[in-house]
Amino acid sequence: MNILITGVGGQGTVLTSKVLGRYAILSGKDCKLSEVHGMSQRGGSVTTHVRIGDKVHSPVIWEGGADMIIAFEILEAARTKHFLKKGGILLVNDTKILPMPCISGGAEYPEGLKEKMLEEVNNSYFIPAQNIAEEVGNSKSSNVVMLGALCRLFDFDKQVMIQSIKDCVPAKFLDVNLKAFEAGYERVI
Amino acid sequence: MDNKELMLTNKAIARGAFEAGVRVLSAYPGTPSTEIAENFAKISGAHAEWAPNEKVALEVGIGAAVAGARAMVCMKHVGLNVAADPLFTSAYSGINAGLVIVVADDPGMHSSQNEQDSRFYARSAHVLMLEPSNAQEAKDFVKLAFELSEKYDTPVILRTTTRVAHSQSIVSLDEPEDVRLRPYEKAPSKYVMSPANAIVRHRVVEERDCILSDVVNTLPINRAEYSRRPARMGVICSGIVYEYVKEALPDVSIYKIGTVYPLPIKEIQRFAQKVFQLYVFEELEPYIEDTLKAAGVKCTGKELFSVQGELSVAKIKEVFDKTPRPVPEKVPARPPIMCAGCPHRGVFYVLNKLKLTVNGDIGCYTLGAQAPLSATDSVICMGASIGMAHGFKKATGGVSNNIAVIGDSTFIHSGITGLINAVYNQSGITVIILDNSTTGMTGHQDHPATGKDIKGKPAPSIDLAELCKACGAASVDIVDSYDLKQLEAVIKKDCASTDVNVIIAKRPCVMLDKTPKASCSILGCKNCGKCLKLGCPALVKTDAGVKVDKTLCVNCGLCSKVCPFGAIKEAN
Questions:
Q1: Structure confidence at residue B323 as a pLDDT band (50, 70, 90)
Q2: Please, is B515 exposed, middle or buried when counting C-beta atoms within 10 Å of its C-beta (0-12, 13-18, 19+)?
Q3: Hey, what CATH class is B4-218 in?
């Protein structure tokens, strides 16, 4: 199973891949993760790759090879959607963050990206994860809201996923993250 | 699965060093190699350090190894350029205890200024080079590298690339070996590389090369994996490319190279005879391909793949399965940006306003080249800002309106000698040191002017102002990076002077202080767009005027200083 996670630096893509990696280990599977550090952390696009299976070779997912894309922002979903397999699931946090070229006037944030993706990708889900995260009390936990949604959509073992979150999230943020997870799990369908 | 862990390859390298009994590790931060030293400092009780640059790091490693301790030195590919001087001659002197140099290449330039291929260093320095494909191999290869280093009295290079260094895979942990300190014996003919001694040692290098060229054919890390199907197609590969081939072409025969220098030519020749068509898949230069062709092995390589960028499963499938690669949608780029509150922002805003030619350097502040700040004219390599600024002045007889801008860590890495040169050869340049008290871009490592060592313990702190004065700077002004007025005044003063002057723009990196901050507020915005010229991600343009994104704003107040209408207020 190949899961591509994409977002803007600071949105928690790396933590999300860490939780999924932990899930794979707890499930006794082989797993490889790939992430890029350095330049990309400074508010740029960040993409991490999670591959889970009996035997995994490439740590990197290839174009047309992702079973699922979790995008924390609409433009980033559009940027990476060619990685999706035919029939793959596109799970998008229904929020826009303007990149600097759009702020400084060098480019326009494209209109109608969401509508286009809904039409192109049969299994696409746009979730107001940002709003849900704010409702449960931490605007920065939208990544875990998305994990809840993923768990439901992909039929992951909920208890194992919760354990994985417990293993990866610092204790003082655990409560709010578990609430965010539940909210994402309940609200996706 | 008690002793198994999903582990970043860089951490696995650190773990390998720990298990191999490394007593001294020295490194300069550089993506994608930084986490090796960081993790070693956490895992091991042995000495770990941030060196001021890679040359010093390698000299430390050579010293430790000659003294009898297993040593590791880590850097990114361009760091090996800096360390090349000790590298070539340490191949002559040899070592005593094992010395392993880790170098991380960056095909695709995720976080680098070039795509150079470190494998050529191994060949020209005649130093054994190993290349792992994943975290487990990385840990195993480190331990093997120390054995080979000691057995053949040579430094050994372990090469990774970004996708290996920054991927995680499952690693089995072992107990650390009990490796004793080896006795040091005085041997000037071996360790004093004066011409007479070096001439003798060069012969040793050549003999060792011949021996190793044979030995590598017997090492299990070089291996053929024959397809169960009739072997028609054979692929030679190493590192991450091996993992791509296993994924993209599961039915081909593979020769997996573990020693990229020397290559196991005899074994590859045997493999070549057993397949119908032989390919070499490699990222960057046709290093393996050219070596094999020179040895008379017929193969196809770079006719199929570019020397630029990374290979991928999809690129291989496109060539061999005729699977077309899906085309990405054309959408606006999201380049990295200076954080809200970044102390570098104001400096570049002023430099842009003053229309100076800016000779920049390597670090977060390379982003000063991007719109809307658009201030920086040149970035070449670590420390080049000062040398280039001096060259600009000399080329134009002193009238060029240019200035050097360099970070604190980069200044210590290789800016000091440039400053001494400018003073000595009297170009009258102005140098701005952006002192954010950390090595920012690579993820906040300490350095000799931060007052902390790699483990976060107190350490002596170099006083940059005193250092610059000692180098001969006529004036050194320390200015708060947020104080736009004073910055502008001091820059104007120094640029009008014919002396070499230094300005230290000082304020810690905004990411070092994670306490919650108040945010600026805007009332009565006339939408003139002046504040947007700061390129701050916390300022968002709307039809109703600029708004502050309170989740990003840290109340640095720069926008309130540039607003001509006083519409933006800093929170008190």
A1: confident
A2: exposed
A3: alpha beta
